[in-house]
Write a structure and sequence with these properties.
The complex is a heterotrimer of chains A (241), B (109) and C (116). In chain A, 36% of the residues lie in helices and 15% in strands. Chain A has 241 residues and is α+β, with helices and mostly antiparallel strands. The longest helix of chain A is centred in the C-terminal third of the chain and has 17 residues. Chain C is mainly α. Chain C is elongated and about 55 Å long. Chain C has a single domain, classed as 3 helical TM bundles of succinate and fumarate reductases, CATH 1.20.1300. Classes of the chains: A alpha+beta (241), B mainly alpha (109), C mainly alpha (116). Chains in contact: A-B, A-C, B-C.
């Protein structure tokens, strides 16, 4: 950094759906993350600030916030990589109701997960043989490529189709549905394909790829959704859904 | 957008790819030749081939544009699903009627 | 609450989607006019001929090549989507979107050159 100042000017969203950005001055330190900055404000400047975090090492996804216009994990975002002219603007995740300050209400996100039938439906009984899953089978490779989602909500916050269409299930829910569609052990695929083929399902996706671009786990919900489009189209044409 | 609308929109899109390419070639040909209305109509009048080509084009574009307009309305306007559907269907019908009239105008002897 | 400076909207693919949508809307508005113009031939070749003469002006020729650009960019962008949705995933989407826009511009420019 050529323009090294000793302090950051940090604007944090205060309030709920209505509110305003409030500015704080935070000492600028080496290797500071955005989460460090928010924590400093809450501990030393303003104890009324509400924010969410847990592991602080990039495993849980709880600390996701909007930082200078992009949804990111704040614990894995170095200030140096996002600061603009010594300033940071931090708000809660977009496309979700705001509980308070930097904490967004994740319930709609998980509701849509359920609506997309993103839950495993067991089929065999204890009397059946254990299913042999080859890790190099096409279906398992497709499922494995999408399975590492930790429900952080960044893709959902980034998606403009979510913003424009309140019915849209969103990239994470559909990505999860895709992993289950590819799980040969799952017994709920007819209902799942019907769920993602309905209005607000996979066909609402416009392939902007904001989800893929911003996913910290490097997942590609756009590709998963494209897979769902193929599966539902053929199921529809064959009269299965 | 659901699977039914999606299938119709993507199918008409795929059908229109060769139709659009031929149409653009026709535009290039007609402009190079500096064709007059009389030249054009001499080729199209009484032609089953042009009638089929542009007839198919009109039907496909009416469906495709109608669904597209529906998508834009549900995402970018305050209209709800039902009203957007009515408006979009009306627009598709308009395209179908005006398009059929245009094809008839240039094809009927 | 409004989001300020959503920076992912500077992405090539987001812009490609916007161009796809706006070109579709522009074509949808243009089509009824196009059909009405062709429908002039119902009254014989003279009304259509006088329209063709009117359209000989430079600004109209510019508009016509603009329309061809919109048609090509909408189709090529849509073709890119059909490939995403029906063929195995390819990573080079930004490159494909840029090629689609570039090719459309070239074709429209060639038409413009021929019109003058």
């Amino acid at each position: 950094m050529s323009d090294r100042r000793s302090e950051l000017t940090v604007s944090l969203w205060r309030g709920a759906q209505q509110g305003r950005y409030q500015t704080y001055k935070v000492p600028w330190r080496e290797n500071q993350t955005v989460l460090d900055v928010v924590t400093f404000v809450q501990r030393h400047l303003d104890p009324t600030l509400s924010y969410r975090f847990a592991c602080r090492v990039g495993m849980c996804g709880s600390c996701a916030m909007t930082v200078n216009g992009r949804p990111r994990w704040t614990c894995r975002t170095h200030v140096a990589s996002v600061v603009k002219g010594g300033c940071l603007e931090i708000g809660p995740l977009e496309n979700l109701p705001v509980i308070k300050d930097l904490a967004a209400d994740m319930r709609p996100f998980f509701d849509k997960w359920q609506r997309a039938k993103g839950a495993f439906v067991p089929s065999p009984t204890r009397n059946d043989e254990i299913e042999h899953i080859r890790p190099d089978s096409t279906a398992r490779i497709a499922a494995d490529a999408a399975i590492e989602c930790i429900n952080c909500g960044i893709c959902y916050a980034a998606c403009d189709t979510v913003r424009w269409n309140s019915d849209y299930l969103g990239p994470a829910a559909l990505n999860r549905a895709w992993t289950l569609v590819n799980d040969v052990r799952d017994g709920g695929n007819t209902e799942r394909l019907q769920a993602v083929a309905a209005s607000g399902g996979c066909h609402a996706c416009h392939s902007h790829q904001s989800c893929q671009e911003l996913c910290p786990q490097r997942l590609n919900p756009t590709a998963s959704i494209a897979g769902l489009k193929r599966r539902t189209m053929w199921a529809y044409l064959k009269g299965e859904i | 957008m659901n699977v039914g609308l999606y299938v119709w929109q993507r199918l008409t899109a795929a059908l229109m790819v060769p139709l659009v390419l031929v149409h653009v070639v026709v535009i290039f040909y007609a402009t190079r030749k500096g064709m007059t209305a009389a030249d054009i109509l001499a080729r199209t009048r009484g032609s089953i081939a042009w009638a089929s080509f542009y007839g198919a084009f009109v039907i496909a574009v009416a469906i495709h544009a109608g669904i597209g307009v529906h998508n834009v309305l549900t995402e970018w306007s305050p209209l709800k699903e039902r009203s957007a559907g009515i408006f979009a269907s009306g627009f598709g019908l308009l395209l179908l009627l005006l398009g059929a009239r245009a094809v008839a105008a240039v094809v009927l002897p | 609450m409004t989001a300020r400076r959503l920076t992912h909207r500077q992405s090539v693919l987001w812009i490609a989607a916007l161009v796809h949508r706006l070109s579709g809307l522009a074509l949808a508005i243009f089509l009824p006019l196009h059909f009405l113009t062709l429908g002039l031939a119902i009254h014989g070749e003279a009304p259509l001929e006088s329209f063709l003469r009117w359209s000989d002006q430079p600004l109209v020729k510019l508009a016509e090549s603009g329309l061809v650009f919109l048609l090509m960019v909408h189709m090529l962008g849509g073709l890119r989507l059909l490939v995403i949705e029906n063929l195995p995933w390819r990573d080079e989407q930004k490159e494909l979107a840029t090629i689609a826009a570039g090719l459309s511009a070239v074709i429209a420019f060639i038409l413009l050159a021929r019109l003058f």
